[in-house]
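Tutorial, part two.
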Amino acid sequence: ALEAIDEEAALSIVVTFKPNNDYEDWTTKVLKNQKLTRPEDPKKLGHKFLGWFADKELTKEFDFDKAIEEETVLYAKWEELTYTVRFILNNGEDDLQTEVKYANTVEKPEDPHRKDFEFKGWYEDKELTKEFDFTKPIEANTDVYAKWEEILEYEITFDPNNGEATWTEKVREGKKVNKPADPIKANHTFIAWRFNGEDYNFD
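Running the prediction step on this input gives:
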């Protein structure tokens, strides 16, 4: 019996695409000595597509202008994306920058310093209303802002009331006053330090 031969099928060559992106491989057929049509670039979260390569080692980029002569396997090559995290110090010093790979977390830097201010943490917005979460994966270029609170100091004047000179101590707002040594006055016993007519409680 005679059988019909599909000439086109006999001359077609299978090309396999391996996207290397958690999606299944796919195939297409090309007539021998014809060029392969470049497919739409595949996608991979957190990666940049670098092209189709003719070897598993991804060293030889495939030439789509070259005619197909035999069964071919093409491999997608990817580059992992990295993002810049910029720490804006708000203290007159240069910002800090670091590179972080996609979906990784950024390491918390050492606390910065600013004269007459207390560092209050890192924030994700310029308005300094939302504290930055260092456990959250980085998925884009990110700015992080230092928050500061001005240190208020008060002068405390001590008068020993014994003929000796007064002296002053500076104390930050919210901090306790350190109790000085009891002053000495001849023929007198020191009772207490007084403020506004009452014994002052250093605790």
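The chain has a mean pLDDT of 92. In part three we will examine how such features are distributed along the chain.
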